[in-house]
Amino acid sequence: MSEFFPEIKKIAYEGKDSTNPLSFKYYNPDEVVAGKPMREQLKFAMAWWHNMCADGTDMFGCGTTDKSWGETDPAKRAIAKVDAGFEFMDKLSIDYYCWHDRDLSPEYGSLKKNAEALAPVVDYLAEKQKATGKKLLWGTAKLFDHPRFMHGAGTAPNADVFAFALAQVKTAIDATVKLGGTGYVFWGGREGYETLLNTDMGLELDNMARFLRYAIDYGRSIGFKGDFYIEPKPKEPTKHQYDFDAATVAGFLRAHGLEKDIKLNIEANHATLAQHTFQHELRTARVNGLFGSIDANQGDSLLGWDTDQFPTNIYDATMCMYEVLKAGGFTNGGLNFDSKTRRGSFTHEDMFLAYIAGMDTFALGLRAAVKLIEDGRLDKFVADRYASWTTGIGADIISGKATMDDIAKYAAEKDEVLPVVTSGRQEMLESIVNNVLFSM
Ligand code: XUL
Ligand code: CO
């Protein structure tokens, strides 16, 4: 087997003073940070679709990068992609990967042909995993590309399309289980609508729940022990996506009795599109007991679309890792780079440089988040701010002991003295974050 990236050697950790672009400055895979090696804290994954497939094609022009991996025949190319993908992961010390079924093996036009073509690729992945120790973080089915899904998959107006999509999911779950995947993702590609003039929203939402229930029950019946995730996104490709944001999905899951079966895969760029911060979405997942996995990337606040850029924003990465640490760290989930190089960054070397940038950003974010927690000033401020809930009337309200009359009587007694309202100190807290980050 020939090398696909012969010009790139294994990327080493050289520390922050190195000026070698093909080195890690902050990501030192086996260094223990907050009780675990960085590779276990961060659980980086490579996204098959962007890295092994996307060639820079956009609405205004053709591809700029060759992702044919030296093969014209689709079946041979699928196998070559596996070799190239595993070489890439090895050179970057990435332990996990994620795919859509159609990234591994393309569309052949029928369920049967698709499944038959996918099988040898999955077998080969299993072999490669065994030989290298790499693991599948999650799999998913591409239910948004082929024209049959133009009106949705699980929320399609036509029951045949629902059945077709579910059959595709069944094959994708089989492949995930065969590869020992610890997650299975539902991103609602075209589960949404363009106009309510032609849409039965109630039926579509109920059908989405039915779709998920069939898939989950099937997965559990064949022994899948990992997590199922929904990945929220507010728009694109449809004008209105049903899985708008973490809070919307939390409500949907509860309304359909699915909250024990599904967690969330939070993507940074999708948070931006929903006009939330990345941290807001992660916190919403966490407080609803739905924190699961992360699609790491970044958008652009000046653009209204899903740019899927490699993450380089240290503040966002820090607050993300702060939430991850507060959630107790990753279990089945991890950090999947749902990111692609810019169209103008078209060389193979750029793929490595982009991953190095993203991985170093999150490594630095992890180190900074640990420092913020160790520093303790933020946690102490929040604890003090809510201290009135730990004693007296606050504690009685939380325990349920206080009646309406008790509360009214308490307030009446305090009527003469204003409640002690303290400053939120936002600016001071923001400067503590800067202080911790820049004294590292
Ligand atoms: C699309 C997106 C998807 C999901 C998997 O915006 O993020 O790639 O991550 O289907
Ligand atoms: Co994503």
Task: Summarize this structure briefly.
The chain is of the alpha/beta class and 440 residues long.
Structure in words:
- The chain is α/β, with parallel strands linked by helices and 440 residues long.
- The protein folds into 2 domains: 12-375, TIM Barrel, CATH 3.20.20; 378-437, no CATH class.
- Helices cover 46% and strands 12% of the residues.
- The strands form 4 sheets. It has an 8-stranded parallel beta sheet. It has a two-stranded parallel sheet with strand order 1-2.
- A hairpin with a 2-residue loop joins strand 3 (32-33) and strand 4 (36-37).
- The two termini are 44 Å apart.
- The protein binds D-xylulose and cobalt (II) ion.
- Residues 187, 231, 267, 295, 338 line the site of cobalt (II) ion.
Secondary structure blueprint with pairings:
Blueprint: E1 12-13, E2 23-24, E3 32-33, E4 36-37, H1 38-42, E5 44-47, H2 48-53, H3 74-92, E6 96-100, H4 101-104, H5 111-132, E7 135-140, H6 159-178, E8 183-187, E9 192-193, H7 201-221, E10 227-231, E11 240-241, H8 246-255, E12 262-267, H9 268-273, H10 278-287, E13 291-296, H11 314-326, E14 335-337, H12 348-375, H13 377-385, H14 392-399, H15 404-413, H16 426-438
Parallel strand pairs: 1-2, 5-6, 5-14, 6-7, 8-10, 10-12, 12-13, 13-14
Antiparallel strand pairs: 3-4, 9-11
Helix pairs in contact: 3-5, 5-6, 6-7, 10-11, 11-12
This protein binds D-xylulose and cobalt (II) ion.
D-xylulose is lined by residues 100, 140, 185, 187, 231, 233, 267, 295, 306, 338.
* Strand neighbour order, sheet with most strands: 7-6-5-14-13-12-10-8
Silhouette: globular
The H/E string reads: EEEEHEHHEHHEHEEHEEHEHHEHEHHHHH
Helical proportion, percent range: 40-55%
Structural class: alpha/beta
CATH topology of the largest domain: TIM Barrel
User: Based on the structure given, which CATH architecture of the largest domain is correct?
Assistant: Alpha-Beta Barrel
